[in-house]
Amino acid sequence: MPPASPLAPPGLFPAARLLIPVDATDAKGTPRTISLRGMDAAGPVLRGTATISSGRMFAPGSHEIVVGARLARDLGVQVPGGAIRLGPLDWTVSGTVSAKGGAAESEVWADLDAVRSAFDRQGEVQTLRVRLDGPQGLAKLGEALSEVSTTPLAAMTEKEFMAGQSARMERLVTLFGWPIAILMAVAAGAGAVNTMASSVSDRTNEIATLRVLGFGRTAAFAATLTEALVLATVGAILGALVSFAIIDGWQASTLGAAGTQLAFGLAVTPIVLVQAGTLALLIGALGGVLPAFTATRLPIVDALKERM
Question: What tens digit of pLDDT does each residue of 228-244 get?
Fold first, then answer.
């Protein structure tokens, strides 16, 4: 089992949670909808990547809140000791929570009973967060839920749950992102063809000389295609370095469930780098095939006369 979060004493689970969308005003005076998450004492224990970055955890039964680090900056609240009005009450900010760019940085945490009382949600629980023992735990939990309750209950991993929260934005990114990516790939391929065609045109004499010395058409094709792949590799490395420097760790946000803000950190992972590098090599290969074929069809005599 992963180590417990330092936010609360270990051994308390499952954690009952209640999420309520509430209106707030950011530092610029712009109204926005944020997530107020009520949780019991076990809630912070199971947020393994979340830590209190300033102040302290909210006191049980009080109208204190812990605000995500990113959200606290956006709202311009004083930490600790500041106050913010959420719903019918003013809540005192006792601390901020950091989660390495995770969703917790866009949430407000408070005591479950205090949230229920303030928003007239007595007895309501939306989700239970538990820590499972091993990979088979989820299946066992699903079977147990079907036996102990007549109310339909769904058991899913947190990854699946968060994917459902951001499904709408994922569809938008897919809808608009892929056409843009394809257009950029086509433009990059056209640029590669133009670059390699110019290279072949400028070196017709050298290519013809190699042919006279005994190198066949296969060698000319392979040399030109290899040059295209080398250029694509250099471009991929430079692109990866620039992307890592600019994008990795960059904080972004989108709309989650019920129109609330959902913050997340962008990460340039090894898988992303491999995918980008593979695409770059593919574009380089496609851009180099036609010029490489042209290099094999150069008339040797005419090519030598052209540079004389």
Answer: 888 888 888 998 888 88
d(CA 35, CA 24): 10
Residue 38: what are its φ and ψ, rounded to 5°? Answer: -85, 135
Model pLDDT for residues 172-225, shown as the tens digit of each residue:
777 888 888 888 888 888 887 887 778 777 667 676 676 767 777 788 788 888
What value does the mean pLDDT of the chain take? Answer: 76
User: Where residue 252 falls among pLDDT bands split at 50, 70, 90?
Assistant: low
Q: How far apart are CA 107 and CA 97, in angstroms?
A: 9
